[in-house]
């Protein structure tokens, strides 16, 4: 679907490793004052003065984490950066630098890597971060991308998963389930395409959910918003695997229980209609879908007045004593224990 037959194909071997690195990284500019030395030496040099530093890494493997038949490389580059930044923001930190390492087989022409790096470049501009290094190697199988993100946070402002207290409120940003439904739409179109390559899919009715899958955004804005509202969450995590497993992480690490209210889970109208079409329950999707990259956090009740008017923040639950357990309170007001499922079980 994404291969453009007319596009030029330059063999990677024509450039050599150093030529390739030069070519891909020559347009990266330094924007952060904490970057002392970026790409070009044996290592980057950073200076964070008094601030604490957070570091996080993700490895993405073709065929496991992404499928190039519907994931354009530009989007893949963008998403590889965003998923890492999301982890930095989930610490209540500000992302400042990334490194990008790639393993590529010779089935990829230079033009493909240019697309990948165009996405990385766009993300670095949107999120105002510097690309300060990486590694480039050949791969015998598919494409591998590893991004390491670095961020800074003022002393005592970092937020862990383990600080939730009984009576705190559980809050989530944005809406949930879109990315999973976007994947269902794309998988379905891929099957249609296999049968009839001339069939042009109409993705317009699914634009929101497909975008949630192909071009997710990290909630940098929420870290800033919380700071402006003078709210420091008691615990925080990003929603990468689905609401249920993230709630369990917070509860286990904080040693608390939780009631999650089904009727408070924020859903986009397109998520609701796509759920009807695919005949899946929207709560199941929100709980187990994953890849939404929203932030899930707990706040002390005294902070509720500060956040209640904000349309991008939804109070979805209430933190309880550990012996109360972790439950979904359904629309019918029955209580069901929440179990971690995440991606894999959900697909099986
Ligand atoms: P070394 O041999 O010390 O690993 P390299 O020749 O691999 O150095 O890298 C040279 C410079 O280019 C380093 O600053 C490195 O961080 C950077 N770099 C290498 N590969 C990439 C990449 N894929 N993306 C961004 N920067 C890269
Ligand atoms: Mg190297």
Automatic annotation (TrEMBL):
Its EC number is 2.7.4.16. Keywords: ATP-binding, Kinase, Magnesium, Metal-binding, Nucleotide-binding, Thiamine biosynthesis, Transferase. GO terms for biological process: thiamine biosynthetic process; thiamine diphosphate biosynthetic process. The keyword Cytoplasm does not apply. Residues 40-153 form the PurM-like N-terminal domain. Mg(2+) 2 binds at residues 58, 87. Substrate binds at residues 65, 291, 343. Mg(2+) 3 binds at residues 42, 87, 238. It comes from the Bacteria. Coiled coil: none annotated. CDD domains: ThiL. It catalyses: thiamine phosphate + ATP = thiamine diphosphate + ADP. Mg(2+) 1 binds at residues 57-58, 135. Mg(2+) 4 binds at residues 42, 56, 87. It is an enzyme of class 2 (transferase). ATP binds at residues 117, 134-135, 161, 240. Mg(2+) 5 binds at residue 241. GO terms for molecular function: ATP binding; magnesium ion binding; thiamine-phosphate kinase activity. Reaction mechanism of ThiL seems to utilize a direct, inline transfer of the gamma-phosphate of ATP to TMP rather than a phosphorylated enzyme intermediate. Catalyzes the ATP-dependent phosphorylation of thiamine-monophosphate (TMP) to form thiamine-pyrophosphate (TPP), the active form of vitamin B1. Belongs to the thiamine-monophosphate kinase family. This is Thiamine-monophosphate kinase.
